[in-house]
Write a structure and sequence with these properties.
Layout lengths: L2 H39 L1 H14 L7 H22 L5 H11 L1
Amino acid sequence: MNISSFLKQQLDKKKQQEKEVSEKESFRKKCLDLLEQIKEINEEKHQELNKIFHQGYDKLNIQRKKIMGLHGQLVNELNILKNNAGIVGSPRQAAKKVIEQV
């Protein structure tokens, strides 16, 4: 292995690490946005989920799959809260609701 290939390999590793950090930050911001949406619907649920988020998932050194899993759970929780409150989130959900009523 010559020096140029070694340096190129090191540069590629560094870019990959930066990409993973930016992905985690992206999911962290999305989680915070979802928590704000949940706050508008149900304050108690927001406090509970916010506490969980800040205790275990608000770290820079968290695994990517864990933060992605939390994001998925928050999306599901938001959808459940919207359905319980009667808020329609997407056209597909609106169509399902109309079909159920008919």
